[in-house]
Write a structure and sequence with these properties.
Radius of gyration: 20 Å
Order of helices and strands: EEEEEEHEEHHHHHHEEH
Low-confidence stretches: none
Strand order of the largest sheet: 1-5-7-8
Largest sheet: 4 strands, mixed
Number of domains: 2
């Protein structure tokens, strides 16, 4: 929702409720936040919640996402899993059974067009291959190929930055830039989940990505056309050295953003969030028309 912000919490701390505000108790310090100003809550580390705070969060339709230090979602708190209006979900289920590849192609075509518009990459050969693709594996292969082309251009555009990028990698991110990309894509997923549910979709019935575990794979579907925009938006702060090596820690083979540096990341993300939400809603409206 416009004008609302994402609240990021690091443990150890305790979340409780006082009046119309959520209060974060951390050692000897307390901070409070009006619930009407919150979009969602991102949690890292050990955070305890009072029962009253949980009820307050749920009743105000605020989603809570629990993330690992590498930016992977470990769990979430949501108000209502699915809304009572099921007409769109019926169309979604039917299309999944009858013609899954049609929507999968539509999603990848949307990503191709965004890569063309944002990165000026010729997509003609990819479009021809997409048109001829017979199954999801072929479509995913095309999506992977255009992503590699996008990251090749991205890498050239950030050359000379203070932080490293050795090509897209995750689970865990192998360098500082990948840590930023993984975190940015995860927050995009977090923004997408409540929008997907509020518009009447089932977040777990996907067309492009395969369902695994608790992964809301339809949310991953609909953020694919948004990835070029998110990726491009990171170029400027990386080039201007807003993020430097001292902002990151390494644990084993993976890098993650230091909690003291998270504020400037969130300032960047909040700056693109409204545009991101508008793009997401456009994608979902387009899919809605194709499902009917």
């Amino acid at each position: 929702m416009r004008g609302r912000r994402i609240l990021v919490l690091y443990g150890p701390s305790h979340l409780t409720k006082k009046g119309d505000r959520l209060c974060v108790l951390k050692e000897t310090r307390t901070a409070s936040y009006p619930v009407r100003h919150l979009d969602c809550i991102i949690v890292f580390g050990n955070i305890s919640f009072s029962t009253e705070a949980v009820h307050f969060i749920v009743s105000n339709s605020i989603y809570v996402f629990f993330l690992s230090r590498f930016g992977r979602i470990k769990g979430m708190i949501v108000d209502v899993f699915l809304r009572s209006n099921n007409h769109l979900r019926i169309h979604q289920y039917r299309k999944y059974v009858e013609n899954r590849t049609h929507i999968a192609k539509l999603i990848v075509r949307g990503k191709l067009e965004e890569v063309k518009n944002i990165y000026r990459i010729n997509i003609d050969s990819y479009l021809r291959k997409l048109e001829d693709a017979k199954d999801i594996d072929e479509i995913m292969g095309i999506e992977g190929a255009i992503s590699r082309s996008m990251f090749d251009t991205f890498s050239k555009n950030i050359r000379g930055a203070d932080i490293d990028f050795k090509g897209r990698s995750y689970k865990p991110p192998a360098d500082e830039v990948n840590a930023l990309l993984s975190l940015a894509y995860t927050l995009t997923y977090c923004v997408a989940f409540p929008v997907v549910v509020s518009m009447g979709f089932d977040p777990y019935i996907s067309f492009l990505h395969s369902k695994r575990g608790t992964h809301a794979s339809f949310c991953s579907d609909v953020i694919e056309p948004l990835r070029p925009f998110v990726t491009k938006s990171l170029e400027d702060p990386i080039r201007r050295k807003v993020f430097v090596k001292g902002d990151f820690k390494k644990d084993g083979n993976g890098f993650y953003l230091h909690k003291e540096s998270f504020g400037k990341f969130m300032n960047w993300f909040e700056g693109i969030k409204e545009d991101l939400t508008d793009r997401l809603q456009e994608t979902l409206l387009y899919i809605t028309e194709e499902l009917k």
